[in-house]
Write a structure and sequence with these properties.
Number of helices: 14
Shape: globular
Largest sheet: 5 strands, antiparallel
Strand content: 15-25%
Radius of gyration: 22 Å
Order of helices and strands: HEEEEEEEHEEHEHHHHHHHHHHH
Number of strands: 10
Length: 311
């Protein structure tokens, strides 16, 4: 596994959902804040995205993709909509059916709008530092894999071929990975693009994520990265924000929380898979990190499961 895959897998809950929106004329729709990440793909036409809280509006054109990684509330509107129209925006739930559009004349706009359900109790710092709005404009030659995913999504929506019920969620998962990749490739700020461009830190992270249950020591990890222990500690801590062994402890407990949420395996199995010698050792470390025992944690997330996994 790699850091980006693990960071997404740790917080994913349930399957992504999507709706098609077709509108025409003067229109505006509001999407309330939610526990997850939202996205929009402009399949045709042009519009504006207005973030809650006074953020700068974002102009969107055909082929543009926008990710809202922290579930921020926002309004989608036609480009001519003013402040009054934005305030009067219709709730998205009232118009999200693919056969419903707002009345009016003029050029139509078609969007694919969706959500990824996330459990934010264990957000990886790579995802935490994403901005509120990630705009990925369509430019010829930019992010070809993202463009391919968008094209495939549009085809599946248009044709509804056999197997589309499985193909669409899989393509939406792929879209999320490509959106995060595209942001990292073009990011001018943020620690994690720099982290994953540093060969020493990347080698250490790859080793920890590939086998987190291994009996890692600072010396063994430094040998894996091909540098001295002091060099690894300095570079890793400077970029990641915590020493290598502290990151390993945090990641092991994050993995344990994910296994407790997503499976019924015994605590002894979770302990073994995450590098702890006994259920007691895991329980002690888990309680110190999360303020709750593993058993109580599992009960709590299962009780909240319908809210996290509902389509």
């Amino acid at each position: 596994m790699d850091v980006v895959s693990d960071a997404i897998s740790a917080v994913r809950a349930g399957r992504p959902s999507s709706n098609r929106l077709r509108v025409r004329g003067s229109w505006s729709v509001r999407l309330a804040p939610y526990e997850g990440a939202g996205f929009h793909v402009v399949l045709s036409g042009a519009c504006r995205l207005v973030p809650d809280g006074g953020g700068d509006p974002v102009s969107l054109g055909t082929g543009d993709v926008v990710l809202l990684p922290h579930g921020a509330g926002h309004v989608l509107a036609d480009r001519a909509a003013g402040a009054a129209e934005v305030r009067r925006a219709v709730p998205f739930e009232e118009v999200r059916d693919t056969d419903v559009g707002l009345p009016g004349s003029g050029t139509g706009v078609e969007l694919l709008c969706g959500k990824y359900r996330l459990d934010r109790s264990r957000t990886h710092p790579l995802l935490a530092e994403l901005p509120q709005v990630v705009h990925l404009p369509h430019r010829v030659g930019d992010h070809p894999e993202l463009r391919t995913a968008v094209d495939l999504l549009a085809r599946e929506l248009d044709e509804r071929r056999p197997g589309s019920c499985l193909a669409l969620p899989s393509l939406l998962d792929l879209l999320l990975i490509y959106m995060v990749r595209a942001w990292m490739a073009g990011a001018e700020t943020g620690a994690w693009p720099a982290v994953l461009n540093d060969p020493v830190t990347t080698a250490a992270l790859r080793a920890l994520h590939s086998d987190p249950a291994a009996p890692w020591t600072a010396d063994r990890l430094a040998a894996e990265a091909g540098v001295s222990r002091a060099t690894l500690s300095r570079r890793f801590t400077s970029l990641v924000g915590r020493p290598p062994m502290a990151y390993l402890t945090w990641w092991r407990l994050t993995m344990a929380a994910t296994r407790l949420r997503d499976s019924d395996v015994p605590l002894a199995t979770v302990a073994r898979e995450t590098g702890y010698g006994s259920p007691y050792a895991l329980s002690h470390a888990f309680s110190r990190e999360f303020g709750i025992t593993p058993g109580r944690y599992r009960e709590r997330v299962r009780a909240a499961e319908p809210a996290l996994t509902a389509p």
